[in-house]
């Protein structure tokens, strides 16, 4: 039987052994760290910010949108706890302040970017790209075959994923499954 996240001594400590943050991020004061229970509200707020624009066109009162998105985050968290119990849950900090979240799951063959998101002020600053490249390095170092993720077809981040070598593999519901395949290691 698979262990649930709740069976672990510290449910937020990653099972995936992560190398240090890449120098390109560290030089900018950006560090991924394991999420702790106290980060739950921050992670929820990043979720709400990511979905705010799409929900604002509903015409619903702001309080209803907030309540709906909080519930959607609760359901997403339950889904992650069930299907990605051993994912590394990370908070991304910039100069000591949280600016984003990253959830990585290693199934022994591939690394899945389960979730990645940033505060609005931290978007389009190269942080996400550097973290995806770091994830590609992790996959390489662990001998995994690929890095995969799901993305909505109209998500602007899809351009970044293409630039980093990801390809659309298939449509899964409203999401596209994208993969970056680990190539042969160059021998010098």
UniProtKB/TrEMBL annotation:
Record carries keyword Transmembrane: no
Domain N-acetyltransferase: 30-183
PANTHER family in the record: ACETYLTRANSFERASE
Keywords annotated in UniProt: Acyltransferase, Transferase
InterPro entries attached to this UniProt entry: Acyl_CoA_acyltransferase (IPR016181), GNAT_dom (IPR000182), YpeA/RimI_acetyltransf (IPR050680)
PROSITE patterns reported in the protein's UniProt record: GNAT
Pfam families reported in the protein's UniProt record: Acetyltransf_1
The organism of origin for this protein: Azospirillum griseum
Gene Ontology molecular function, alphabetical: acyltransferase activity, transferring groups other than amino-acyl groups
Name used for this protein in its record: GNAT family N-acetyltransferase
